[in-house]
């Protein structure tokens, strides 16, 4: 490792401080970020469909694809977040890069819920629904809802 002059070290430390300060003003959002995320063939908005499944309705059981996966994977996600923040502090990784990586990780956790029945937490489809859609996999028909889950880094 190259030995730094006092001026170089001071400049490096100041850059790290600036990067850490930047993190304080930034965040990452994960979910169906925009109401313009899409519309199904029947005209129903993806956000509305997402809300129905995330919280459930009188007729639709709750199949959380955001809260439950993040709760189940909270230790894994927390370790990943800490790892990224340590890279910001120790290696000078840009704050934006750390938050982008966290967004990708959280998006992946949410989207994986669609392929494993909400990490085993979703209620099975009724026989009538299975017959109607031709599949026993909840929430996957067109992939529209799953593909609408994104992330956004904000300043």
Could you walk me through the main structural features you see in this protein, from its secondary elements to its overall organization?
This protein is mostly helical and 155 residues long. Helix content is 55%, strand content 6%. It has a two-stranded antiparallel ribbon with strand order 1-2. The protein starts with 5 loop residues before the first helix and ends with a strand.
Radius of gyration: 21 Å
Order of helices and strands: HEHHHHHHHE
Uncertain stretches: none
Major sheet: arrangement of strands: 1-2
Bin the strand percentage.
5-15%
Structural class: mainly alpha
Shape: elongated
The total of helices stands at 8
| Biggest pleated-sheet summary | 2 strands, antiparallel
Q: Which bin fits the share of residues in helices?
A: 55-70%
Furnish the topology, listing elements before pairings.
Elements: H1 6-24, E1 27-31, H2 46-55, H3 67-72, H4 74-91, H5 95-112, H6 117-120, H7 127-133, H8 144-147, E2 150-154
Antiparallel strand pairs: 1-2
Helix pairs in contact: 1-4, 4-5
